[in-house]
Amino acid sequence: MIEDIRSRASNLKVCSFYLYRATILQHCRDEYEAGRLDQQEAEALVARLMPEGGWPSIGSNVSEVRTSAQSRKHVKPESFGTLASLAYSKEHRTYQIVGGLLEFGPELLTRPRELLGAQLIGRHLIVRSAKWSPTNRKGTGEFRKIGLMDAILDWELPDFRKLLALLHQDLDEVGDPTRLVRRYGAALRRLRRGIPWASGITLKTTRSQGRSNLARAGYNPFEIASIMGHASAETAASHYGKANKGWKPVPGRSPLAICIEELAKVRPGARAKSKIARQQPTTVTAARSTFWARKSSHPSL
Fold this sequence. Notes:
The chain is built from 14 helices and 4 strands. A hairpin with a 2-residue loop joins strand 1 (119-121) and strand 2 (124-128). The longest helix has 20 residues, at 14-33. The termini are far apart. The chain is 52% helix and 5% strand.
């Protein structure tokens, strides 16, 4: 185990390395106190755990952000457009895919993994939900249908089909969706390196900003949940972007169609159930309407 930690030191975060080291040292201490290690053996093992004498630099190969945990939730359309153009300009298949994910991600609200193996039939996109299982009740189903209305225009469909074809090629060659998503995330981190305004933009940001856009466009929480594949109507509001950060909607434009079958699977969240039981408004808009209705009937309030 000590040799394994030494060999992987450059790929471990500093805090992770010292956590492993402390655990092994404690185990050595326990073995010494139990009499299963003599002093000479214990000192030799401890010496092997000291980061000196030919060790690779701890964490030298670790990127600045390895997950989407610190990703931004709101980004202006110009930022996505600029990053997508930079990705397309590199003319490498991975960057072509990253450019497509940045371009179409805010319109579709899909996770990057869900587009791997997705099928476009007419103007309906069929995706396999990334976090669904029969037991966790986190999604509306294993597959969901997304109706493309104005989210992707007719002249954009060839580019979108090209993106799906590239994703299919990668999936056929690699076979592991998780590995591919990590590859695309790493490419995006390299793309935004040295660009201060792009800090924190990840592939998850596209889904978060897309939720903001739909909320500002007038979609209610149940409709948004059905599009995003959430079983609870409260998940999107608590984990993704806010409505007031959405892009200004184009008048008369309906980005995505509502699937009645998916909508029927969405349940109210725990907070909504509690408010319904107490006969309280479940949205800010409804609360404001209730307040002004009471104020008009009782001017002294």
